[in-house]
Amino acid sequence: MQSIKSTALEPTRAELAAMGPGERAAKLLPVYGLPILTLLLILFFSLLLPATFPTMLNLRSILGDKAIIAMLSLAAMIPMMAGRIDLTVGYGIVLWHIMAIALQTQFGLSWPVVVLIVLAMGCFLGLLNGLLVELAQIDSFIATLGTGTVLYALALWYTEGRQVIGMLPKGFTSIYTMMPFGIPIAAYYVLALALLLWIVTEYLPIGRYLYAIGANPRAAALNGIPTRRYVVGAFVASGLIGALAGIVLAARLRIGQASVGLEYLLPALVGAFLGSTTIRPGRVNVWGTIAGVAILAVGISGIQQLGGEFYIEPLFNGVTLLLAIGLAGYAQRKRGKVRLKPSRTSGS
Q1: Low-confidence ranges of the chain (pLDDT < 70)
Q2: Which of 200, 238, 275, 333 would disulfide-bridge 289, Cβ 3.0–4.6 Å?
């Protein structure tokens, strides 16, 4: 069962070479429109707020605050490549950050051991999601909504609605507080993940296989691709990155509470869906996802500095998600029309 489809719409080099300058610009605008819009927003807010927006302090704030969302967006992107969706990227982080703190403060485990345990639990969650989707044949949206709700219930049960507080070792908190070259270390995590996923998705067979499964799982299976194995693997990778984000969140907050975490779900999905509208329109991709998170970060930061109310951020995320899904659907339909044209011509 599929929740979404994954296809590509970017023009080829041969197509661009045959076009004039104006036609080439019109063709490339949808591809790089989102990064261009992000740069325009940065310029706009810098002119309106010259004392606060174009500053190193604001850059550090944006990179540090939105790094976790970027990690979750990259986690959500992987199952989307295979045409599935993983809602536990938002629900899981609630339990993971509580577990990372509780295992140290209440059970006395060392922080390296805790990190390994949380990462292993993230992989187990991904494996469970993959088995529910592929073996039980439950739609990925329903399956991950169910497992995510169970995780949230476990977090509520353990905390009883209270905060988990205790002294954390400096080694653990430095997972978030370190600032190499004046940049929050969380930004380096995102960069490392993005580079790794970019290499895997663009230059290794596993990436091509996932995109093939997302475009047409039956055709992928007929071509010898073990679709179940790759889909389950995609969920395991998503669970691993989601658990890593939970560890970073725990090092940032230093307290665990069930009320924290769910607000990351919507922006993470928005970033992943926006990623399918740029760089390689019509399919989710790494740098498109980073661009999607960037425009959310810049837009929300600028609006907040202009005095936006507390409800502006969820409103902005919700409207952007609707636009992203609409644009992604349009790109997929347009891609389908482009694919049909050669077959009609050859058949005539």
Answers
A1: 1-30, 321, 324-348
A2: 275
HSE at residue 168, side-chain half, CA atoms within 13 A, is 29
Q: What is the number of alpha carbons within 13 Å of residue 141 lying toward its C-beta?
A: 6
CA–CA separation, 125 and 17 (whole Å) = 47
Residue 12, amino acid: T
264 in Cβ contact with 72 (< 8 Å): yes
DSSP structural state of residue 137: -
Which amino acid type is present at position 303?
A: I
Residue 101: strand, helix, or coil: helix
Say what angle helices 56-81 and 265-275 make with each other, to 10 degrees.
Answer: 70
Q: Return the structure tokens found at 162.
A: 């209270």
Give me the torsion for CA of 231, 232, 238, 244, rounded to 10°: -160
Rounded CA-CA distance 348/342 in Å is: 10
Domains of the chain and CATH, by start: 30-333 (1.10.3470)
Name the residue among 24, 27, 89, 51 with its Cα closest to residue 241: 89
Give the pTM.
0.85
* Residue with the two structure tokens 């970060």: 297
* C-beta separation of 68 from 253 below 8 A: no
Beta strands in the chain (DSSP E): 164-165, 255-256
N-term to C-term CA, the chain: 35
Residue 348: its pLDDT value, please?
A: 40
